Records
---
Amino acid sequence: MQIASGDFWVMIAMLAYFIVVLTIGFVYAKRSNSSTSEYFIGGRKVGPWLTALSAEASDMSGYLLMGLPGVAYFTGASDAGWTAVGLAIGTYLNWKLVAKRLRLYSVKAGDSITLPGFYSKRFHDDKNIVSTVAALIILVFFCVYVGSCFVTCGKLFHTLFGLDYATMMVFGAIIVFLYTLVGGYLSVVATDFVQGVLMFFALAVVLIGSIAWAGGVENTVTFLQSIPGFLSGTEIAVPVLTDAGAQMTENEMPLFGDAAEYGVLSVISMLAWGLGYFGMPQVLVRFMGIRSADEISRSRKIAVTWCVVSLFCAICIGLVGRAVIPVEFATQSAAENVFIVLSRLMLPSFICGVVVSGILAASMSSSSSYLLIAGSSVAENIFRGVLKRKATDAQVMIVARITLIVVFLFGIFVAYDENSSIFYVVSYAWAGLGASFGPLTLCSLYWRRTTMQGAIAGMVAGTVSVLVWHNFIAPLGGVFGIYELLPAFIISLACIFIVSKLTPEPPQAVLDEFDHYMDEAPEAPEKQLVEGELEQTLV
């Protein structure tokens, strides 16, 4: 295959990006492999800037640069906009209500280094039943999550270079797998920091360029207002579709029908995305790994600012993209490439390569976190927690890496269909994790009467509710069409409360630990290489 000059420079820029992230992985390999604490949580030595950008970059994944702009491009501002509002509120509340408490309690509760481990030690669960259930739930939904990130890699290379989707999806997956396998938590956090900065830069550059390409803000708004309901927060644009599901066009313009009402139920459904944050292991583990609880406030400000600005830019790119290339994409799945096509259209080849590496940054930062958390949950909480309690750190890390391979292969299986919508694949996994762990996280930190039986009931109820609602109840439509996270979250919370009330009060040792876990913050560990060399250099 002959490579055009422009494609060559795009590839050079992206190759440089690959070299950077792999180098970081190998740099931290020796330290990360010194113990399970270092490999799974960085020894709790990560500072506020790295914690903030790592949490947000790992959280946002490919849907920030592809999924969210794709929704905005296809049906306008309502779906994407209200989802972003929910995510922004959820981000703030998670940092405000959970971060500091989880950092302190995870140390108090047996110095827990994984989220499932914290749940078990919080309830003094010597048999590790709680952590085993949690680890299995993480394994199920993270396989789906990892798959969504691999979809992003495949779509990126296919759209940019016309290369085979499946081949490039596997290639991107292998890159993520290698630096996660070798470097552990510190490499993930360090690359997340770089990727978070790159994602922010990419969004800003493409948004500004798109507006200029469309003829300025006034011309863009005028065009978009001509599409019924496109810019409304209470209506949604309705593309006219063929029998095959592709949008119809006329005179090189997209066809839309009358706008549909975007009611209160739809708004609530999208705002419910914010509830997911309370149960996201990839974010919660960042809270556990920060160097000091006293640095949470600073980290929160950084994270929320990054989140709000990035979400705003992502939605605007989708909206402006409809004005710049109005008939480029006939389906929502195809529209998820709008960021890539705009970058290619407007930017010099090398700069385009740098910018679209932001998409790789989004998917790689997230999938690496998912792989690592899945591996740590199985190895630490099932293998050492249940199957072989006297396992050495070396044995635990071997099991963790075997788990990485399994999740990696299953993620490839999930991602093999190139017509998969990143936005909807992510929404399924997001609901599953949010409903399974969100209510339990809040109850663990705020309600002393929560029992181990209540914790198990809440996790199982959340998982089952998402699966049942998504597959059997939501298709009924109407009020049942609400995003499954909201009803599943409520059901899980109710189960925790009811079962906890029906079972004996927790042992006195558990109550005493709860009553005093906020009393004194542990001393912050001494600054280490991750903070000294990376953060001070880049920030």
Note: Strands lie at 235-236, 249-250, 253-254, 260-261.
---
Amino acid sequence: MNRMPRVVATLLIANLVVFAAGFLLPNGRDLIANAGAFWFPANDHFGLWQAVSYMFLHADMGHIFFNMFALVSFGTVLEREWGAGRFLVFYFLCGIGAGLIQVGINWQEFHGLHASLVASGLSPDTLASMLATGSGVLPTDAAVKKALFEYYRLYATPMVGASGAIYGLLVAFGFLHPNAKLALMFIPVPVAAKFIIPGLLLLDLFSGVTGFSLFGAGIAHYAHLGGALIGFLLMLLWRNRSGPDAQTFAHEKH
């Protein structure tokens, strides 16, 4: 059996160690989330380093399992084809780009809700107090109340997970191996990557636009799409550069 390539193995171990630390350290999950999750920029917990650190935090066992399964499945192939350096650059650019795109969309939505809430009669001082304390007198109007809850959710709910980087890997794999058959648990037969990966992206786009998700609430759909977009742009850039073969982007033996 071939050994797992070193960058994939290191990323896997790092994610597992951070996840385990959240349970083993006293108050570990809160401490790690406060420092490492990607918080909304107006939140006191926000830090620039979180554009990287959030990729190593996961919400629960299912979250980390599926991300790490995909990392090993697709990352192993890509690292063996590209080499450690190129794979590492690709992974982090996709993950960072995914986080920034999601935060940018959240920022735009937050300020749109702020303007709407002020127009409905809530003062900026009242909204600031609600954000700071997490409490206050709720409006009676159902639509305004719903907007207020979403406004607070954007402010107080950080982003975690490697999914943005993973979606970049999915796109790269589909770019290089479009006819490879992939088997997913909710699809009974293997389907070619060139069909199943665009299908996943369309599903994320649908969920991001409509708010309806087949996989539950709390998913950063635009981070998935952002990671996929960065991955696609990198693949186009590397394909058009002179030097490495356009199909393999240089193979390295390990």
Note: Residues 242-254 have pLDDT under 50 and may be disordered.
---
Amino acid sequence: MQLAIEVKHLFFAYEKEYVLEDISATIKDREYIAIIGPNGGGKSTFVKLLLGLLTPTKGTITIYGTPPSKGRELIGYLPQNIHFNLDIPLQAREVILHGRLSAKKRTFDRDDLQMLEHIAQQLHITHLLNKKIGELSGGERQRVLLARALATKPKILILDEPTAAVDFKTQKEIYQLLQELDLTKIVVSHDVNILLQGVDRVFYINRKLYIHNNINLPITPQEGHFCEMEIFEKLGSENGCTH
């Protein structure tokens, strides 16, 4: 199986304080990874390192065999907070199509329009394309922004708290969509009660990395959320924890 991501003995420090210490992991092509952990534990820093937005203090990262500075072209990214003016009269289709633009590509073509139609059908948002982004609900907006992240046809999709501002029903719908996407997926989330449905492995990050390979546990979904530590206790070392 081809490796999508390989991390070897990764350390990262802000000034002299280490946020991440001696992290090593591999993620296979088309694997679905959940990242959980406490606030300040290093989850967001880890994602920024994968994206090449930060440089490791020590250690190495490769994205399909290339450094993050080049590999990030293979990544579609949906950050936790996307700030844009909802009063701007952009239609959902325009928001998605802008994900296809770059310094080398400044106009849309037929391939872009075909991509738009395909992704809209895949995410069940065809009926939203002509609506202004400011008219959409939080859940509808997240679907549109997910479509934008997929617009570049990435090999890896990284989502940071994709359901933080949506209701429980929409959370379940978004995670169901993620299970259907055929690419490497990394999702950072506090909604572990839902997120554990369908993921291959759980990465618990709190300065160090703890990997859970066996997550087939009798956890009953309910309207409410387990916190990360409750899940971590349920996943204990007897259930395949490595680090």
Note: The two ends are 21 Å apart (CA to CA).
---
Amino acid sequence: MKFRLNNFVLVAVCFAALIGLLSNLDSDIETLLEARIASRKPAIVVNQVGYLPQWQKKAFFRQYSASGAKIKQPSVAKLIDRDTSKEIATLSLKPATVDPDTKDAIATIDFSQVTQPGNYYLHGGKLKSAPFSIGKDIYQDALVKLLRSYYIQRCGVEIDDPISGISHPPCHLSDGIIARENQTRIDAVGGWHDGGAYNKYVATATVTIGRLLSLYEQNPDLFPDSQLNIPESGNGKSDLLDEMEFGLNWLLKMQRDDGAVYRKVAVATWALDLAPDEDIQPRYVYGISTPETAKFAATMAIASRIFESADNQLAERYLAAANLAWQYLQTQSDMKVDWQPEDDSGSDRYLASEFNTEKSLTTDIDDRFWAAAELYITTGKDIFLSYFTDKLEQVEYTLFEWKNPAILGMTNYLQQQRQPVSEGVINLIKIKLLARANLAVEQATQSNYNNANNRFIWGSNKMAAEEGITLINAYKITNDSEYLNAAIAQINYLLGRNHFNQTFITNVGTNFVKNISNLYARAKQIKMPGLLVGGANATAQDKRVYPNKGQLSYADDELAYATNGNATDYNASVISLIVNLITAQ
């Protein structure tokens, strides 16, 4: 009896302790998350890749400062040559101001007058910045890593990469079963794994390819053969075009005979702790949609004109697919999406949802607009020009993304020299572009970290890059350095001049993101270089970061899928920002 009583008391004590633990769980998590988002250690934060000689060059002294706390900062900072240890310049710090969002006291260190190429760091008091460089070619390594990321995420083929060490047999060779039609299959093998998982999405693939092919169209000399050391290197064609061809050929498989395009290839249950080749569950092809069909048409139209000189037969195939998609759209007067709730049990939706509430997701006009723009530039046909000009007034100039791709149609129309243009159309596009750029400059000026993006939601880092691209386009129109400097500030933020003193691209910079939320990286504990992560997300869907803290709602955590995961379109945006910046002057 005594033994039973003692055990009963022990169980009761343990139960009471458990109840106490559970009652304090929320506050404990809150304390943990608070500690993770706000480093109390002062730092000098810089762009950890560096600055072009002609750029404005600014770093920040950053110190957490609770309301009313006394701010202590170095009186000066010294720019030191890393190779010789010589002092290059002594720099005064402007008085710190407290950022209301992060509670960081931020003082600016301006060394724009230093243009000598070299390797440097900043030193102030007991603080030392991460190393960085000044030079014309300092972004080449980052660009190659960002571009090579597509190769290491290829699906349906063997990967054996001597540079990253990533290797696995061919994966997902049975893609895919038409959802809700279990007896029907199509060949949907190929493409890129996306969203930090093994699913494949037309929405992100199209805007990725459209963005990067447009970048190539403006700067073909920057993307030579053998640049990326991929299997196709040495074939006499740009490695970028080779990689985009891999994605384009998967997109072709996603088109039905009537021209409509399926939305995605995905699993019914998220794969966990498996390498790509170990994920053998059935993979489904989910329903058609007019937004994806229109984005497909735009991307194929761009591809057709880009590939004309490299592979005319392939270019003709892409154009035929674009025309077929456009023909299907003419049979649908309104947006059409074949979607059921169960379609998203193991994949992302990429449609309007509680987290994606933008007005553009209620219509496909913006998607059709992009298709019409690209088809006009490629073919010169009046039917496409008419749709483009008729809808220009009502299409909003926001950010180029899968939610609203119309913006690329506008800027490609501005920059192309293939077809006749209307001065009235040109002027209206410029008005729209500059209005958006002015909002971005205003936001960057108001932000202590000079962020042009103040929407810390899913993919905020991509949004910062896209705001930067808009600012660069405004600079090209006006030659106003205010736009250029605001654009430079966006790459500075992404590459380390932020609260976390961290670059948001794996293996780029010194203090780079290390615990990316990616299924393959988690499953095999491997490093995947050159991936931009999503960034701060105040909605905190993954519950791994503190919600509603703006840019502090971020953690370098492999389970933080809503903030620390990657996606193909994220990389396309930061690649485009970097190339636009280095070619701006």
Note: Confidence is low (pLDDT under 50) at residues 1-29.
